Amino acid sequence: MIDESFTPQCKLCGSIYDKRRFDIGFLFCMPCGNDVAKQVKRCVVPMHKSNLVMITNRDDLIGINNKGGLVK
Asked: Other C-beta atoms within 10 Å of 4: how many?
């Protein structure tokens, strides 16, 4: 049973935000969501004879474009 009176609260500041944001998977209000998004670092790297790959974990960059395989 779906609770129609449910009001989502931001995980950081506790303010109530729009239920439509919660329905599509957001756990933060707009101002806190912007702050969280600024903390995530992304890098796009080319793979050898392939396409571009987005990396979010710095440890994944070690040896990623080595022709002989992954070197760590």
From this structure: 6
Q: Are 19 and 6 contacting, i.e. CB atoms less than 8 angstroms apart?
A: yes
**Chain centroid offset of residue 2 CA:** 27
**Entry pTM:** 0.52
Contact 34, 48 (CB under 8 A): no
Select from 48, 40, 42 the least CA-distant residue to 71: 48
Query: Domain locations in the chain?
Result: 1-61
Give me the percent of the chain exceeding a pLDDT of 70: 85
Locus of tokens 């903390």: 39
The structure tokens 């439509």 sit at 20
